[in-house]
Automatic annotation (TrEMBL):
Keywords: Membrane, Transmembrane, Transmembrane helix. One of its GO terms (cellular component) is endoplasmic reticulum membrane. Belongs to the TMEM41 family. The chain crosses the membrane at residues 38-58, 94-114, 126-152, 182-200, 212-233, 245-267. Pfam families: VTT_dom. This is Transmembrane protein 41B-like. Residues 114-234 form the VTT domain. It is a multi-pass membrane protein. It is found in: Membrane. GO terms for biological process: autophagosome assembly. The gene is LOC112693398.
Length: 276
């Protein structure tokens, strides 16, 4: 009788641990916040962020009309090139304002999954020394992704379950396989285009990815592709498109680092097979 009870308990635990049951259970817990309320809070946070961007803009030093037209979020290499020329002119005198503007803009784009961060990465390479630029990019990427993570965890859960249920289930299965290697797995996802970054940020809290390995994996994972952007920033005036920074050697470098990031996972699996 005890054996039967134990089998029933094990089956019950197995069912509860499945990605489908996790999603269904969490969706039931999320009924306290309506979709309308979630959207309202998200819009309020977005508008508040825009107000901060506006404050940074109006606290900037007096500029000519020609310069003002280039003070905007760069969504392509031409925007980044023009913005870089203007900021370079003011960087030495107004270092803090320039730095904080880039810092907050980068986090803003990452938090709300808005395209344009690659142009800001190139801009950082243009304005700052290599190591400082790379550190800014990694820190802003990790912070912005974590803010997106927190938004999804608190107010975006209901929306994500409604519009991406199948993709979340697939992601949950992948995450479950790498529970013991979450840092390496997140780092691998950041290096490779296996999943879109916005999808990783939004779905990570929904499938129980811990915030610490998520932050660290993002910080170190984005460093590898960001090296290319920083290098591109060094020759920003010569670039005509974002594809100019890519070459076969760059692709090989990405593949090498992506493979290296998987080594902890592979070795741990082999050791487990050996000692089990």
């Amino acid at each position: 009788m005890a054996v039967v009870d134990q089998d029933v308990q094990n089956k019950s635990e197995s069912i509860m641990d499945s990605p489908e049951s996790i999603i269904e259970t969490k969706f039931e817990y999320d009924q306290t916040m309506s979709t309308t309320k979630a959207v309202f809070i998200l819009v309020a946070i977005f508008i508040s962020s825009l107000l901060i961007l506006g404050y940074l803009y109006y606290s900037f030093p007096h500029m000519t009309e020609e310069e003002k037209q280039y003070i905007k979020l760069p969504f392509n290499i031409k925007d980044a090139q023009n913005l870089g020329k203007v900021l370079e002119h003011y960087k030495d005198t107004y270092y803090t304002q320039v730095f904080m503007s880039i810092f907050f803009c980068y986090i803003f784009l990452q938090t709300f999954a808005i395209p344009g961060s690659i142009s800001l990465s190139i801009l950082c390479g243009f304005l700052y020394p290599f190591l400082l630029a790379l550190t800014i990019i990694c820190l802003c990427s990790a912070m912005g992704a974590s803010f997106c993570y927190l938004l999804s965890m608190t107010i975006g859960r209901r929306l994500a379950y409604r519009y991406f249920p199948d993709r979340i289930k697939s992601y949950a299965k992948l995450v479950k396989k790498h529970n013991d290697n979450m840092f390496s797995y997140i780092m691998f996802l950041r290096i490779t285009p296996f999943l879109p970054n916005w999808f990783i940020n939004v779905c990570a809290p929904l499938v129980d990815v811990p915030i610490i390995p998520f932050w660290l994996g993002t910080f170190f994972g984005v460093a590898v592709p960001s090296v290319l952007a920083v290098q591109a920033g060094q020759t920003l005036h010569e670039l005509t498109s974002t594809t100019s920074s890519w070459s076969w050697s760059s692709v090989l470098l990405l593949a090498t680092f992506a493979s290296l990031s998987l080594l902890p996972v592979l070795f741990k699996a082999k050791l487990r097979d050996k000692f089990d």
